[in-house]
User: What shape does this take?
Amino acid sequence: MVRHVLFAVLLVGCAKGGVGNPAQDDANGQVVIDGTVYEDAPDHEFHDAKVFEDAHVFQDAHIYMDAHVYMDAHVFMDACVPVQTQLLQNPNLDLDPPGTLWSQTDINVAYPLITDQDGIVEQTAPYKAWLGGFAQAAPNTDVLWQDVMVPVGTTSLVLAGYYEVRTGETGTTVYDTGEASLRTTANVLIENAINLANTAPTTAWTPFQHSFTNVSAGQTVRVYFTSTSDDTLATSFYFDTLSLVATHCP
Assistant: This one.
């Protein structure tokens, strides 16, 4: 403030025809006006912070360093481009030896569940899953499963594939059943994907798709196929060309 006031005094002096002594710089870099010494560097007009160093001109964070302009994570780092990941290994069931990467409990160990037997043409060769097909008293349940890790941040989880149902049963009474579901690794049901029975046989591979309402993000889950039969008139439940696709942020 002193420098600005002095400048105004000098202007007034000039306007009055030189009243008062003019300002002079002495050898020590001081300004002398009317015999009074003022502590000021030479050429003070060029060192005033208001001109060259004012943060509002050159260093104001709102101009150069404000995160909202250059480094705001919401602008540059928050974007998510979802990806889709196939979670099943050997989803087409076709790796050798048959049953690779799948677990199974079958009614008769002489007849593995992933096979090229029974004469029905596979949806994708050379193998398919064949559950049921026996007419006998208990034990009469087949189980095929695979445990998978659902990625953190998963927003969609979809099980899809193909099935066939062939049966010797007749009528509208349910005797034999098959299903595909999502379970915990302790076999606790999370959600059914498809329920099949002898009352709805097919004559060709039929596509199915189920989007789970519980995506179990960040958890290990079990993709589970099973069949149960009674002791007469067998029903076979076939599955092939499977996928479990998670949509998530990478």
Observations:
- Residues 2-76 form one domain.
- Helices lie at 2-15, 49-52, 55-59, 73-76.
